[in-house]
Amino acid sequence: MHVVADDEAWILPECNANTWDFMKAQLQNIRPNRAKIEAKQWRRYAALFQGAWWRAKVVNVKPLRLNYIDYGNTEEGETEIRLMPKELFDVKPLVIIQY
Fold first, then answer.
1. Using CA atoms, how far apart are residues 15 and 26, in angstroms rounded to an integer?
2. How far is CA 20 from the centre of its chain?
3. 92 burial type by CB count under 10 A (0-12 exposed, 13-18 middle, 19+ buried)
4. Neighbours of 46 (CB within 10 A)
5. CATH label of the domain that carries residue 81
6. What is the pLDDT along the chain (99 residues), one digit of tens a residue?
7. What is the count of structural domains for the chain?
8. What is the distance between the alpha carbons of residues 7 and 95, in angstroms, rounded to a whole number?
9. Contacts of 3 by beta carbon, 8 Å cutoff, 6+ apart
10. Which of 69, 78, 62, 29 is nearest to 45 (CA)?
11. How far is CA 91 from CA 17, 52, 77, 94, in A?
12. Which range of residues forms the domain containing residue 14?
């Protein structure tokens, strides 16, 4: 669970736990690219956050603002982004918001 405010939290339903494990394993296999990837608004990428790769949607390009779709947080600032593994393109966001 990721608590955003007193009245807002993002929760991983138990039914998504296996998909979560699969997703994290796929993301941790990302190899650094030498070529810089140019972010495009509303596209999904793998993005580095606190030392781990997560799926993120670009909300804004300049400044870079990412919504980490499987955790619920939105962060602004430069970070590494990579193309997402193809196995994860069709996986819907795993968390749901609870008010």
1. 19
2. 12
3. exposed
4. 20
5. 2.30.30.140
6. 555 556 667 676 676 778 888 988 899 888 766 567 889 999 999 999 988 899 999 999 999 999 999 888 899 999 999 998 888 988 888 876 666
7. 1
8. 16
9. 9
10. 69
11. 13, 19, 25, 8
12. 2-98
Do strands 81-82 and 44-49 pair parallel, antiparallel, or not at all (unpaired)? Answer: antiparallel
The two structure tokens encoding residue 97: 């918001």
- To the question of pTM greater than 0.85 for the whole model, the response is no
Sheet (strand 2-5) strand order: 2-5, 8-11, 96-98
Taking a C-beta distance cutoff of 8 angstroms, is the pair 24, 84 a contact?
no
What's the rounded Cα separation, in Å, for the pair 62 and 16?
Answer: 33
* Residue appearing with tokens 């606190």: 50
CB 89 within 8 A of CB 74: no
